Amino acid sequence: MEYIFENSDIVRDYECDIQGIVNNANYQHYMEHSRHLYVLDRGVSFAELHNEGIDVVVARFEIAYKVPLRPCDKYVCRLLPEKKGIRYIFHQAIFRKADNKLCCQAQVDCVATQNGRLLAGHPTLDSLL
Length: 129
Prior knowledge:
Low-confidence stretches: none
Distance between the termini: 15 Å
Structural class: alpha+beta
Number of strands: 6
Strand content: 35-45%
Largest sheet: 6 strands, antiparallel
Radius of gyration: 15 Å
Number of helices: 3
Order of helices and strands: EHHEEEEEH
Mean pLDDT: 95
């Protein structure tokens, strides 16, 4: 897959569970942070959109775990957005930097609402694609 955005980070000790691996829920946090950085990088602010009554929410999150991350592992989170109907879909993957191993991959389906009503699209959001 040809991803169009990526950001790097490092695993913090408190993100790991008793087995010494990143807790599964934290991968979702990593991916959410990456989506927010992508949107900011494109000059769009979720806070400003919210102030206009527009909210983008996750409707579905499908993830496959492959290789665990451990404390102090450096990783890169990559994404590729697309639009299908009313859904804004983010294809995302996390790779361990040391060996470029795929740690997990996901499809995150988001929808936009305006004042609580589902939107078919929005020019600012569509510009992110």
